[in-house]
Structure formats: structure tokens, C-alpha cells
Amino acid sequence: MSLMWRSLTTLAIASSVLIAGDGDVVRFVKHKLARNPQVHVNSVKITDKLPIPGIKGWSAYVMALDINLSRGKERRRIEFEDILFVSKNLITTELVDRKTGRDVRSMIQPKMPADIYDKSHLLYGKADAKHKIIVFSDPLCPFCRMSVPDIMKAAKEHPGDIALYYYHMPLVSLHPASATLVRVMAVAQKEGRKDVVEKMYTLPIDYKLTDEKKILAIVKKQTGYEVDAKKLHAPWVDKLLKHDTKTAKKLLVTGTPTVYADGKKDVTRGRYKSFITKKKK
Predict the structure, then answer these.
(1) What is residue 55's predicted lDDT score, i.e. its pLDDT?
(2) Would you give the distance in Å from CA 19 to the centre of its chain?
(3) Share of the chain above pLDDT 90, in %
(4) What mean pLDDT value characterizes the chain?
(5) How far is CA 264 from CA 21, 50, 65, 82, 89, in A?
(6) Residues near 226 by Cβ (< 8 Å), separated by ≥ 6?
(7) What are the distances in angstroms from CA 231 to CA 125, 190, 226, 227, 239?
(8) Closest to 255 in 3D by CA, of 173, 165, 157, 158
(9) According to the 3-state scheme, what is the secondary structure of 176-223?
């Protein structure tokens, strides 16, 4: 269940309200959120309505929520997306398949944004490659370090088979140093230094480090790549990272690494291996 939902409200698993249509779902969510005195609801929208594979009578509603949250004197505007599961007269934020024990949320995938395969995110491989891989990653995430370099290597060595589109998703609350490293990676990629992007996955650095100058000094020492702060904070870098964050929200990506293979979420993170054309002997 989304931490945002938990912090704002608790939705009832069974509602006495008859859910007759999409409008009732929106009104139900607005009502539940408005019960929290700290919340002012700006808007609630249904951005997608998806069937749930193998489960009859239920649909997954992808909701876009825009609220103002007040905590003491602090007031923040928060925009986020989440999934609600809806049947004829039931609404819940969590649904589990009792036969498999699988969280149904993991089975749901919103539609890919139209610009998901734009050139600015193509790291390795040809745009017209047979298969496309999308990766949302944080260079300091230990799970990313175990799998993402191998995906990069495969796309680099088999450009006709795999096109790798890379999206930055720094988990700053867990790895503060990633906030600077992803900016280094963005600039390096634009300058054609893809090797630097790869090296961030083996960079020896304290993940808790927040001093930008110290981080850049470590990058220079360990990789030989030097970049100044002005380049890191150029408007286009800010725009790129905001776009990546927005795309992750649209796809309800919450963890790293999240991998998509030919438009479908790959929980194994290894489907790319089957895309490699074996050389004839």
C-alpha cells in the first residue's frame, strides 16, 4: 500500500456506497481525503482504467491526485499517482490473490507514455533495435549495482538486438550522494562519455555524502572525469531529471531497479538475455 495513502487516510475495504461509475470513484476518493483536516483536495482524476489479469469483477483505477498538505505552519502541494481496486460496490487500496498470495498491484502496469523511447534517454543500442529495454535506476542502489551494469554491457555489445533507455531515479532519502551523481551522469552522457555513466555503478563513495564539491572530487579522482557545478545545474539537467521523475510517477515506479522489456515490466530483470541473437558457428 502506498505510504502516501497511509499517511493521509485509510480507505475502507468495503464501502456502503454503490459504485455506479467513474464519477462515484472520484467523489469517494475526494470524500475520504477531505476527512483529513490537514488535507485540501485540489483535484482527483482517473488517468487509466485497467483490467486485472485473471481476476474477474475488479478493475484497477490509476488515480492522479493533487493536494495541499498542512503540517503546523508548513503547507506543501503534493502531486502523486496511485492505484485503487474497484468492483461493483467495493473499493480498496490493496488486493491480494488468495491462491498465489501475490499482491495484485505488482500485476498492474499503466500505459507507457508516448515519449518513453525518446533519443535523450537512449544510452546504448540502436533506436531501431529489435528489442527495447527501459531501466529506472539509482547508481548507489545495491540491487541496481548487481544488475544494471550487465544490462548496459548487453546493449553495448549487441546494439542491433537491444536498445537501452535509461531513466534516473535517485533514491535521495536512502542515498543522498545520488542527487549529485545522477547530474554527473546526465552531463557525461550528453558529452558522449557513456563510460562515466557505467563507472558510477562501481564508484567507491560514501552514499551518505551530501557535499557536492567532495563528491565531484571523488568522481574526478576515481574516473578522471571533471565537471563543474555550473554544468550540473544547467536548466536542461533540471528539466531532464524532472521529466524522469514524472515518468516514474506515471508508471507508478517506486523502487529501483525497475526494468521494462518490450513495454512489459520485467520483475526478473533478466529477460534481456533472451533478446541477444546467438552467433552462428
Answers:
(1) 80
(2) 30
(3) 52
(4) 86
(5) 29, 14, 25, 19, 30
(6) 216, 219, 220
(7) 26, 11, 11, 7, 13
(8) 173
(9) CCHHHHHHHHHHHHHCCCHHHHHHCCCCCCCCCCCCHHHHHHHHHHHH
The backbone region for 276, taken as left when phi is positive above 0, alpha when psi lies in -120 to 50, beta otherwise, is beta
Q: What is the pLDDT of residue 5?
A: 52
Given a cut of 50, whether residue 16 has pLDDT beyond it is no
Closest-CA residue to 97 (of 45, 150, 132, 56):
56
Q: Which domains does the chain have, with CATH numbers?
A: 3-107 (no CATH), 119-275 (3.40.30.10)
Q: Is the pLDDT of residue 227 over 60?
A: yes
* Mean pLDDT, residues 179-192 taken together: 96
pLDDT given for residue 12 in this prediction: 40
Query: In whole angstroms, what is the distance from residue 123 CA to residue 127 CA?
Result: 10
